[in-house]
């Protein structure tokens, strides 16, 4: 790539020892300069506010400072690696919809911070620095920044030559903002949605996809944000409770195993995705139906009790160890059967036939197990006031048991009460 015409090489005419002292002092100041520059940029340029921009600002400021100090240490033009980095940053700026004026304002704010720190470094060096040193360093800052801004503009131009790629990257930037750990600013989301040509719905849902190749290449319709490129692939879709949106979702899934989070306002999509991924994990482990390709997607809202129990697992474990303690009287390899049976009979109102159909066993098997459960638990399982607590405990058991064994938390924390062994 071409470079600016006013090539600058920072040769300050210092002896090797004096240059080494200056370089050490400047390098030591870099962390403080970067931290203050990021704060100042985010205060002055609202477009860069928020934690999602802080990492990029830190990278740009840190690399720019390091490159400038390298030029003092070994006079010469900026390195090609540094210019390539700023071309990539310029392309990313364009792809994320940041205006060129915002980039310039950020550079101006950051450079003012750097100049203040350079003045302090020169002052601290005192007699070790020539009188004209500060002026020489500052006179090199702005031509140096011109190098970096030209590289940034080149990156923007490259991105503009690929409009389809630019739109794709803008939609990915929007998806990242919607799924960030902190709730995104509605105004920022509206701006990103406009840049990404996404018809933002009032409510939407996140969809967790089973990892792996979906088996086809596809172009998502405008209303779907595609996150299938992520390590944990996902989609964002308009409220799938509306029939037209559900048809679009079914077409997009194309038989792929998936779980759909509850529809929420756009600022809550990170939570919707967390619930969807939790439901997909449970389906993959056989706790919930719908793990196989071709199955209907798991609707997380249909399994709210299980997801709520897992969200408050520590408290529910404490209750479950106490309420399910009678199962210690059953041989370990039979406890899971009895836990499943107790859950089924509670959910089926003690109807043995309905519980048997749910468990895929004979009704007489359920009746025999229920007599044993009556013996173990006594009146507790017939006390309506305890049913909710028992069902919470049993849902946690079912969600955390592996391959039909009792959960680890029960074995480690239930104590040693109950010394009988049952068939």
From TrEMBL:
Occurrences of domain PucR C-terminal helix-turn-helix (ranges): 339-396
PANTHER family: CARBOHYDRATE DIACID REGULATOR (PTHR33744), DNA-BINDING TRANSCRIPTIONAL ACTIVATOR ADER (PTHR33744:SF1)
Pfam families found in the cross-reference section: HTH_30, PucR-like_N
The protein's name: PucR family transcriptional regulator
Domain PucR-like N-terminal: 22-179
Cited InterPro entries: CdaR-like_regulators (IPR051448), PucR-like_N (IPR058663), PucR_C-HTH_dom (IPR025736), PucR_C-HTH_sf (IPR042070)
Membrane spanning residue stretches: none
């Amino acid at each position: 790539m071409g470079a600016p015409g006013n090539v600058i090489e920072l040769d300050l005419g210092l002896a090797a020892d004096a240059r080494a002292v200056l370089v050490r002092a400047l390098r030591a100041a870099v962390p403080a300069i970067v931290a203050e520059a990021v704060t100042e940029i985010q205060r002055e340029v609202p477009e860069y506010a928020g934690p999602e921009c802080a990492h990029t600002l830190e990278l740009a400021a840190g690399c720019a400072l390091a490159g400038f100090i390298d030029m003092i240490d070994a006079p010469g033009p900026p390195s090609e690696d540094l210019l390539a980095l700023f071309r990539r940053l310029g392309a990313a700026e364009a792809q994320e919809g940041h205006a060129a004026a915002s980039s310039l304002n950020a550079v101006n704010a950051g450079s003012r911070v750097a100049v203040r720190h350079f003045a302090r470094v020169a002052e601290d060096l005192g007699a070790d620095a020539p009188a004209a040193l500060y002026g020489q360093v500052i006179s090199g800052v702005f031509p140096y920044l011109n190098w970096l801004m030209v590289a940034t503009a080149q990156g923007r131009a490259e991105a503009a030559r690929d409009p389809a790629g630019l739109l794709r990257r803008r939609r990915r930037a929007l998806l990242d903002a919607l799924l960030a750990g902190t709730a995104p600013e509605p105004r920022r989301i509206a701006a990103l949605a406009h840049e990404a040509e996404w018809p933002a719905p009032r409510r939407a849902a996140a969809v967790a996809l089973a990892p792996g190749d979906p088996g086809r290449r596809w172009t998502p319709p405008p209303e779907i944000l595609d996150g299938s490129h992520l390590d944990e692939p996902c989609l964002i879709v308009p409220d799938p409770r509306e029939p037209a949106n559900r048809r679009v979702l079914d077409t997009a899934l194309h038989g792929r195993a998936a779980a759909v989070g509850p529809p929420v306002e756009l600022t809550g999509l990170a939570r919707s995705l967390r619930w969807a991924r939790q439901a997909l994990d449970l389906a993959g482990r056989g706790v919930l139906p719908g793990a196989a390709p071709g199955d209907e997607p798991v609707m997380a809202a249909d399994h709210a009790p299980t997801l709520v129990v897992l969200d408050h697992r520590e408290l529910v474990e404490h209750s479950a160890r106490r309420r399910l303690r009678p199962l210690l009287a059953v041989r370990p390899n039979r406890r899971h059967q009895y836990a499943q049976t107790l859950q089924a009979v509670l959910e089926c109102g003690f109807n043995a036939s309905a519980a048997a159909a749910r468990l895929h066993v004979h009704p007489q098997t359920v009746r025999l197990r229920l007599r044993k459960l009556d013996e173990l638990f006594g009146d507790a399982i017939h006390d309506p006031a305890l049913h909710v607590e028992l069902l919470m405990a049993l849902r946690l058991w079912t969600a955390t048991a592996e391959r039909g064994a009792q959960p680890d938390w029960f074995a480690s924390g239930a104590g040693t009460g109950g010394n009988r062994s049952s068939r």
